[in-house]
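Late entry, written up from scratch paper. The run itself happened at the end of the previous shift, but nothing got recorded in the book at the time, so transcribing now.
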Amino acid sequence: MTGGSALSLRRFLRSAGFAWAGVRHAYRSQPNFRIECWAAALALSLTAVLGAPLAPILLTCALVLSLELLNTALEAVVDLASPELHPLAKVAKDAAAAAVLLASLGALGVGAVVLGPPLLGVLRGGLP
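Output as recorded:
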């Protein structure tokens, strides 16, 4: 067995470094991922300012960003396996993009339900 114990801090940090490299690559190369990161930062900031529940906003942001990373990974694998246009490659890429779209729409719904009432209160002149 290489790399030591599964509970090794060194092994964990090495794996985390690989994961962080994936995040950096996606942020640099994927415009939608950048937009979603900034939307998540805005949603989380608004959550803090309004004193709204953090968990649902945090989880929906993590879901959208995670699915965008999987979409990026799937696109790379499909491009590697099928550099030429192929109908099944299109299906795979479209389905992965659809997963991100559905999660994003769900995140908007969660944001409206969780952040809507306190935001309306502030807009009507109340304090958060």
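The mean pLDDT is 94.
(Scratch paper discarded after transcription.)
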